[in-house]
Each structure stands twice: as C-alpha cells, then as structure tokens.
Amino acid sequence: MPSRLKEIRRIILNNRELKILSLLLAAISWYAIRGIISNERDLDDVPLEIHAPPGVAIMGQAVTELEITVRGSREDISRLIEQKDDIKAVRELKTTEISGSREMHIKPKHIVGVPRGIRVIRVRPSEVMVELDAEGEKEVPVKAKYEGEPYEAQVEAAICEPKTVTIWGPVRRLEKMPWVFTETIDVEGRGSSFEKRAKIDTPSDSGVSHVKPQEVTVSVTIVRKSTNREWKEMPVTALLPSGSESQVFIKPAVVNVSLMGPASALENIGDDSLRAFVDCSQLAIPGEYDLPVKVHVPTAMGVDAAVEPETVKITLKAP
Questions:
Q1: Which pLDDT score is estimated for 268?
Q2: In the chain, which ranges are continuous DSSP H helix?
Q3: What is the reported pTM?
C-alpha cells in the first residue's frame, strides 16, 4: 500500500510545472469559451400570435408583444438582431369554450424564428389573458384610404373592386364594423388616374382573423384642379381676309374673358398675349351678322376660355 501511494505521489509531482500550466490554460480557455457562448441580450416588441380553434375567436388580448431574453455567442446574437423581424411567439389555444377569459402561459419553446445557436431563456410576461367569443363571418363594404396631394389635381373618386369582402372574427366585434378600409394609397404628385392592388387593412384590435379576398383593385380617378383668371373689358378685333378694305363695326366692342386651367399655366399668360376676336374672313356681303367671340390663348395645356357675351353683332360695310 505505501508503495502504491508513493507511485501516485510520483505521478502527481512528475512534471509539476507543466501540469500546473495546463490547468491554468484550461481554466483560461473555459472562461474564454464561456464568454463567447454565454452572451445574453434582451429583445422587445416580439409579436405574439394566439391561434384559436375553428368556431372560437379571440376578442381581446391583453398583450400583443413580448420581451424575451436570449443567450448565445456574440456572432449568433449579432445575426439574430439582423433577423429580428422573423422572430415571433406562437401559441395554440386549445379550448371548446366560446366565451369568457382564459390565461395563456407563454414559454421559451413558443418562440419561433430563432436561429440555431441561440437559446431563449426568458419570456416576459409569461402569462397573457385573452377574451373569447364565438367566431362569425360578415360581408362588409371596402373603402379606399389614400394620402398625399396630386399635382395640380384632386382625387374625384376611389372605387374598390370587388366592392365588398368577407371578414371572420368575434361576433360582437363584427357587429360594430360597418366597413373596412384598404391600406393607404399614396397619391402624392400624381397627375392622372390610375389603378392599384391594395391589401385590406383591419384594425389590430378588431379581432379579425382573416379576410377574403385579402386584396382589392382600387381605381383612383384624378381630375385637374382648375383656377380662374379674368380679363375685364377686353377689346374685340375683327379678322378680315388679307387685303380687305371693308369697314367693320362691333357691338359691344369689349367683352369679359375668363380662363380656367392649372394655376401654373395661367400664371404664364401675359396680358399682351391674349386676344379676343371675331372671324369675318368668310363674310363677302355687307350687312349685319351675329358672330361668336373667339379667344387666342398662347400654347397652354388644359386651359379653357369663356367669353361674356359669347356673341357680338358685326356690321360689315363696303369700302
């Protein structure tokens, strides 16, 4: 027995310095590895989805987002941050009750979308109250929702096709939903009518579980936004054939001219470039005529002219 103890002592003390160094290196390596793989990070705003069985609807949910704590290496956690939008909590509700409240326990195993190498260690809150109701369906009209300012124009109509959709959700909530809206359509800077596919947007607290169809076609009618600009007592001139020496008398000799069109076009029309006239080029016999007053407008897209009075009396006399 003493010889065996001596042998053990000899083994332990043999190369003692090397063995102590090995132990130190092992300890340092363990702490280094622990530091690499044991980083923790809190993530908030993790969506919580609670799926109810057929015939049951979730009318109210105390919490829709969770905070979780994950553990993993620095590299894995950095990769997790980039993929955060894929992470959510999914809890299946198993019950035959169609009313009342129920407490749902949320555990790390209910978190999905977490990359390999990452472990969820805590979920807050871990209990969530849900209010249940019978599931129903309802056909409701769809209204288009839009924002923005068209270019020198305005939205005259936004019509959805189909005009109605079917929604499923808590019966008591559906009773208070006379219609649904589309997602917001941007009309900023638009100058003409257009069509766009748009998803149905139901309020997050409505309890609506699904919509059919999920998208509609929105026909947005955009019309020109016009402004007026007026010229009072503008002289009326007569347009005669080349070389004509006939005398022309116009009554009344002045008219009021009103232009309607985009503000940017009207602003570029100068007083000297506008002219009111009557076309006498086809009159060959002296006499009196009622002729319409025409307005010469410089090249301007979408500008309409109105004259008051619209016609004048022309007296044509031989030279």
A1: 80
A2: 2-13, 16-37, 74-82, 171-174, 263-267
A3: 0.58
Contacts 24+ apart (CB under 8 A), 73-79: 73/36, 73/37, 73/39, 73/117, 74/36, 74/39, 76/115, 76/117, 76/118, 77/39, 77/41, 77/118, 79/115
- The rounded distance, in Å, linking the Cα atoms of 140 and 176 is 11
The CATH architecture annotation of domain 136-224 reads: Beta Complex (2.170)
Encoded tokens for 309: 């009075």
Cα–chain-centroid distance for residue 258? 40
Domain positions in the chain are 37-133, 136-224, 227-317
CATH code reported for the domain at 37-133: 2.170.120.30
Sheet bearing 311-317, strands edge to edge: 247-251, 311-317, 287-292
pLDDT of 16 over the 90 cut: no
Q: Which CATH architecture has domain 227-317?
A: Beta Complex (2.170)
